[in-house]
Amino acid sequence: MKTIVAINPGATSTKVALFTNQTMAWKEEITYQAADLAPFAKVYDQFDFRLNDIEAILTKHAVSHIDLAVGRGGLIGPVKPGAILVNDALIEHLEHRPILEHPSNLGAKLAKALMAKYGNGQAAFVYDPVTVDSMKPVSRLTGIKGIERTSTGHHLNMRAVARKAAQALGKHYDDVNLVIAHIGGGSSASAYEKGQVVDFVSDDEIMFSAERSGGMPLKAMLPVIKELGIPAFNQLARKKAGLQSHCETADLREVEARITQGDANAKLVFEALALGIAKTLAALAASITGPIDQVILTGGMAYSQALCQEVEKRTAFIAPFKAYPGECELEALALGGLRVLNKAEAYQVLSFEA
What we know:
single chain, alpha/beta, 7-stranded mixed sheet, 19% strand
């Protein structure tokens, strides 16, 4: 029996779970207020603070030994999907040269520290970072040479959902064709062809979400960017857009409540949200050769039955629809690590240029 700790550091929380083989024994979430994190100038300055909180939870649950710790991968840069060994080069890269500053960059160092204390110094891993990239070359090109589409988003949850979907369909993961959208504060979507993500839509393309703008008409945005400046525009597009911009709330439940009260604007925004998601899934379907097995919604907004029904109606021509609401990221981390421990899956070792 293998004991695995999964760690998912986020912007306002650290989620921790303990698994024995495939079964979750417990899960806890440490939440942080802005004042808690204010003393730390950079993400990596939070390391000891978050590690102490994790160790306090392990002590509470009388954990004295683990077989593996698996952390959220962070913004490493383009990598193949799956498990990645945590070595000094990876930690140094995530601390000093990540694609973007984000608390998930701490996942690797936290996992290694836990293995040093509870795992006899054995290897630690990260799994399916947000920068997983297996897109086809034809999917990368844009209309301007040198500017390419990237694959940054909710790979960890969507790949886990793809495995669940394959199992439910009675197929092997490497045999299914799927289009999946993860919808929440930010949204992203992926096209799976025989288990490989051949195309990807990041949160700055096509669909808007609770807080992100999604794709915008370039000619209309140029004067806005000029007026606001890049930092303020980035804040607008990534934190104050989507539902937040149109309805002054990022909570889809509140938008739906307004619709029941006869709010015509809320109804229009809701329909536009569903249309954008459906357009994204339809666009990704064009990247898959052969019949598609399933259209899938996951993420927090997939709890909305009304939204799922609207997206299902608009994508019925593609394939049958299925919702996997919420996220299973801790489970995905643990089960990925378990496959490595059982030698059912190989792991990668990354090196970086200085």
